[in-house]
């Protein structure tokens, strides 16, 4: 017997259970990679166990065993997270509870409990991903849960699941306008209480410190950091090689790790920025990263603009929000590729930027002294020193690689002399150490370089893998100048944008072989564009956009009260619509019956109360008996009414009915009894 | 003892002002309902309230909303609002399951007190989609009968109804309910059918044999036949009885019930006496016990195919036999 036949012969209870288990698996599966391995396996085993019981029609385990399993699940969660509160522990626990609950699911009440637990589990999926794929999977799961619930409320016989599915789909369809209205108009507010500490843990991004090796992890991360849409045509844009999105600037080196200067020191110091030439306007959609840095193209004097956003420029030209970016943030900015910044003459802070721990990287210090001693360099000043260092990178057999191995204590020494291989952060860090050893103020700038233009919608996508580290060197009379030593090692990394890719998996290679790489790229572009739309319209629908939309609707200074009013208005409109519809539905009730009821009411007023179930012929007899000859016209009318209903007639009865109604209005009611 | 407990409770509830208000309200509400054997459920007589599960859903929605706000999950908002929208649609579907349905009570057949009997209700739907999971019950009994009503069709439901007392009863208030599709709302309608149902007295179990017949001439009844369980007109088959004396109708019944007992006509006695069933001849004092025994006798006499009559305090059912006679007697016993 094949599977289909087996399934169709299962008792209804078993069939419903299997369906519910399938839905639960659908809810839990996307969560699997985010659960501790033991929890995922535990939940999976419980579901398999329940499936076996349902297939074999075996009794469910005893309450004691279930209780023991519950205690085990809670204890294991406690052991793993030291708490059962908090996001990670909560998600683990709810997944286990859902799987456990299936082992005692029998009655309708249990279907309800599973239904509610299922929704919490669905929501917890969104902690980890809000992609279109997750949304689609959860839509399927929602329909599945609704179907299971509807099915649980059809106790008669063995209705096909398709009937329940149709009802569920219809409810979801009717619910969609409600969803859209609420989504658009429900006032967006700030988190009600502080976010738990583990919020967004595991998401990579730039940070305020850099230990050699950080960005390597990001190079493997294909997730989107932000998207940019430039005003005007592409021809007006700077070349890709000049697109440096500025993030944390790292000036403080302790021999091992680069740190940004503490933020509180910076706001009062002027950045000393002078811009020249035409500006480029653009709009950036920044993914939430829990960091304050607002990525901008170098350099923007006015900074990012978005309602509700408070940003300031730090001394070293980076823009910071006063609050970490915890939701998708969209801002407008104007940047000037030609600019000059920093003090033109030596200051005390600059001396801080050439500090180097005394015992750090002795060979690099020696190299710096050696280069300084070169007469050509000493004649040419700082610029000549920079050129000499870049020349060394270009010609000294240095190699750009994502897998440079593990560096020891003196990273710059190892880079310059031993390994001669690394990627942007090794190169930038070593370069800055060399400059500082030579007494030149220099610093590491991290951020993103380049990006990818999506030909479908024209948006530029900047990924975590575009994270980059470059350097800035201070030259007297010219201020801070950007130097990208990585470009000297690997010109391809900058500019032509043949980025070094992380080694691709077997699947990726297979895709390239089977589908042509061009087609794969095309598909990817379409997918990215769709994903961007999704982000713009769904994920990025924040308070800002909500208020923008109100403005577009004609509100001058919209606030959340307007939203509430609008929402209340919509509810009132919907209620009115419902009332109108039900009134209309009442009118649709048999007009013949309504006319008969009217006649009965009039007779009751005239003193002849007749029961409601009396047919017109019997009413006519009663009228004759009660009123005698005076009642004859009314009796005739009643008989005609009866004939209209029951006698054979081919034509539409509506005109005749109208005639009878008019006749009834003019009918003189008998006032006295015979 | 249960009766005293019950009485005490009813006294307590009579004194409880809230209970009194509730009862008043109930009575007023019931009085508003017109008695009719056919009713169309409309907006006016279909009620809706959320169930416990419905409140639970509301709480779930609230928690989902708070989580969406706190974690700033736009997909969480979408999920919450889609679920809310579906629940609203579910409320409408739930209400529409009863709205527009017409209920018709089929004329109830009489039955014996204490028997589980059924009221037959026909549910007719003119809608082009089926109506699912409609439950009917006598109000307050909790014995629900479930049915689906097909699209533009009808379904018949038997509602359990077991009145304890004999007599002519009003059909109790019936209630139709549904929680389809989500169980979050209870939609119900109350209905007072106009029909009445006749309840025969419960026959006494293991009633003694029928009393002897009265002789036509007013002679004293023959005691001999009463003792041996033989009655006027018939007696148990004896070997040697001619075939024409065997009551074949009874024999078929006896075969069907598996007793194999043949009955012969007793030509000598059938003309001499007639059977009258009277309260006085039951030998009992309690009126209800008398009626129970008389009922048992009526059934017994009918089973034996006798001619019999019934004399009650204020009514007399003349001599007769057959199904019609049985019904006449049972009706008289039910209503006396």
UniProtKB/TrEMBL annotation, chain A:
Q: Does the keyword Transmembrane helix apply?
A: yes
Q: Which SMART domains match?
A: TGc
Q: Which UniProt keywords apply?
A: Membrane, Transmembrane, Transmembrane helix
Q: Is the Manganese keyword given for this protein?
A: no
Q: Where are the transmembrane segments?
A: 20-48, 60-78, 112-129, 135-156, 168-186
Pfam families listed in its UniProt record: TgpA_N, Transglut_core
**Could you tell me which residue ranges the Transglutaminase-like domain spans?**
416-487
Tell me the domain of life: Bacteria
Which PANTHER family does this one have?
Answer: PROTEIN-GLUTAMINE GAMMA-GLUTAMYLTRANSFERASE (PTHR42736)
The protein depicted here goes by the name DUF3488 domain-containing protein
Species: Simplicispira suum
Automatic annotation (TrEMBL), chain B:
Keyword annotations for this protein? Membrane, Transmembrane, Transmembrane helix
What are the transmembrane regions?
A: 46-69, 75-98
What lineage does UniProt assign to this protein's organism? Bacteria, Pseudomonadati, Pseudomonadota, Betaproteobacteria, Burkholderiales
Name the chain's protein: DUF58 domain-containing protein
**Segments of this protein annotated with the region Disordered:** 209-234
């Amino acid at each position: 017997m094949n599977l289909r036949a087996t399934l169709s012969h299962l008792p209804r209870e078993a069939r419903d259970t299997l369906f519910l288990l399938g839905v639960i698996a659908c809810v839990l599966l996307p969560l699997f990679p985010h659960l501790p391995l033991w929890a995922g396996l535990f939940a999976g085993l419980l579901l398999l166990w329940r499936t076996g019981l349902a297939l074999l029609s075996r009794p469910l385990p005893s309450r004691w065993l279930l209780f023991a399993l519950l205690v085990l699940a809670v204890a294991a969660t406690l052991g793993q997270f030291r708490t059962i509160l908090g996001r990670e522990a909560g998600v683990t626990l709810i997944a286990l509870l859902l799987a456990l609950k299936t082992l005692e699911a029998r009655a309708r009440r249990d279907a309800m409990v599973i239904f509610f637990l299922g929704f919490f589990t669905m929501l917890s999926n969104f902690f980890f991903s809000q992609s279109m794929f997750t949304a689609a999977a959860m839509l399927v799961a929602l329909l599945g849960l609704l179907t299971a619930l509807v099915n649980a409320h059809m106790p008669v016989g063995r209705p096909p699941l398709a009937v329940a599915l149709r009802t569920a789909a219809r409810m979801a369809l009717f619910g969609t306008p409600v969803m859209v209205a609420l989504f658009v108009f429900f006032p967006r507010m700030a988190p009600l209480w502080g976010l738990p500490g583990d919020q967004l843990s595991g998401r990579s991004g730039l940070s305020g410190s850099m230990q050699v090796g950080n960005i390597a992890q990001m190079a493997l991360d294909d997730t989107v950091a932000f998207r940019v849409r430039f005003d005007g045509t592409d021809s007006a844009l700077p070349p890709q090689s000049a697109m440096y999105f500025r993030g944390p600037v790292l000036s403080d080196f302790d021999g091992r790790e680069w740190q940004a200067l503490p933020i509180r020191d910076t706001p009062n110091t002027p950045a000393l920025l002078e811009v020249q030439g035409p500006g480029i306007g653009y709009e950036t959609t920044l993914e939430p990263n829990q960091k304050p840095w607002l990525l901008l193209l170098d350099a923007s004097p006015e900074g990012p603009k978005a309602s509700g956003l408070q940003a300031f420029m730090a001394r070293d030209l980076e823009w910071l929000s006063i609050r970490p970016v915890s939701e998708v943030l969209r801002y407008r900015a104007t940047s000037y590729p030609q600019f000059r910044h920093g003090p033109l003459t030596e200051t005390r802070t600059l001396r801080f930027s050439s500090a180097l721990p005394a015992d750090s990287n002795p060979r690099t210090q020696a190299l710096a002294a050696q280069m300084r001693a070169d007469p050509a360099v000493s004649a040419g000043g700082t610029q000549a020193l920079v050129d000499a260092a870049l020349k060394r990178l270009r010609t000294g057999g240095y190699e750009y690689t994502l897998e440079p191995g593990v560096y020891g204590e003196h990273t710059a020494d190892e880079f310059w002399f031993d390994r001669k291989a690394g990627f942007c952060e090794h190169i930038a860090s070593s370069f800055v150490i060399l400059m500082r050893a030579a007494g030149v103020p220099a610093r590491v700038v991290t951020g993103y370089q380049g990006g990818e233009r999506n030909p479908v919608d024209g948006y530029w996508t900047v990924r975590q893998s575009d994270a980059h580290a470059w350097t800035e060197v201070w030259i007297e009379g010219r201020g801070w100048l950007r130097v990208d030593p990585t470009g000297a090692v690997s010109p391809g990394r900058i500019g032509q944008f043949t980025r070094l890719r992380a080694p691709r998996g077997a699947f990726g290679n297979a895709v390239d072989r089977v589908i042509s790489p061009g087609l794969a790229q095309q598909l990817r572009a379409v997918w990215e564009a769709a994903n961007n739309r999704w982000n713009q319209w769904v994920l990025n629908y924040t308070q800002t956009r909500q208020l923008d939309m109100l403005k577009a609707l004609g509100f001058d200074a919209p606030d959340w009260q307007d939203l509430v009013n609008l929402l209340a208005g919509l509810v009132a409109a919907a209620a009115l619509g419902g009332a109108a519809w039900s009134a209309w539905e009442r009118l649709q009730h048999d007009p013949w019956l309504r006319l008969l009821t009217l006649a009965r009411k009039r007779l009751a007023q005239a003193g002849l109360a007749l029961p409601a179930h009396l047919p017109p012929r019997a009413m006519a007899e009663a009228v004759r008996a009660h009123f005698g000859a005076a009642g004859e016209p009314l009796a005739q009318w009643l008989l005609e009414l009866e004939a209209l209903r029951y006698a054979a007639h081919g034509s539409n009865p509506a005109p005749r009915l109208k005639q009878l109604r008019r006749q009834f209005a003019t009918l003189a009611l008998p006032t006295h009894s015979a | 003892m249960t009766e005293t407990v019950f009485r005490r409770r009813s006294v307590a509830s009579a004194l409880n002002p809230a209970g009194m208000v509730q009862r008043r309200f109930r009575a007023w509400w019931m009085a508003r309902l017109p008695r009719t054997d056919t009713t169309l459920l409309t907006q006016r007589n279909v009620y809706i309230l959320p169930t416990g599960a419905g409140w639970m859903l509301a709480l779930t929605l609230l928690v989902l909303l708070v989580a969406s706000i706190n974690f700033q999950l736009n997909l969480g908002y979408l999920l919450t609002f889609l679920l809310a929208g579906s629940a609203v649609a579910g409320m409408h579907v739930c209400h529409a399951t009863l709205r527009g349905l017409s209920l018709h009570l089929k004329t109830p057949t009489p039955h014996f007190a204490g028997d589980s009997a059924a009221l037959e209700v026909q549910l007719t739907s003119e809608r082009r989609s089926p109506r699912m999971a409609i439950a009917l019950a006598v109000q307050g009994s909790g014995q629900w009968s479930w049915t689906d009503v097909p699209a533009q069709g009808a379904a018949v439901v038997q509602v359990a109804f077991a009145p304890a007392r004999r007599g002519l009863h009003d059909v109790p208030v019936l209630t139709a309910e549904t929680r389809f599709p989500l169980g979050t709302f209870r939609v119900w309608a109350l209905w007072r059918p106009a029909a009445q149902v006749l309840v025969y007295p419960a026959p006494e179990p293991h009633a003694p044999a029928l009393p002897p017949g009265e002789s036509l001439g007013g002679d004293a009844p023959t005691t001999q036949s009463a003792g041996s369980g033989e009655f006027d007109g018939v007696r148990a088959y004896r070997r040697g009885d001619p075939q024409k004396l065997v009551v074949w109708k009874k024999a078929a019944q006896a075969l069907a019930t598996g007793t194999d007992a043949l009955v012969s006509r007793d030509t000598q006695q059938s003309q001499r006496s007639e059977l009258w069933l009277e309260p006085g001849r039951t030998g009992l004092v309690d009126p209800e016990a008398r009626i129970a025994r008389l009922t048992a006798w009526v059934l017994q006499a009918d089973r034996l195919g006798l001619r019999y009559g019934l004399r009650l305090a204020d009514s007399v059912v003349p001599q007769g036999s057959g199904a019609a006679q049985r019904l006449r007697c049972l009706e008289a016993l039910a209503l006396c």
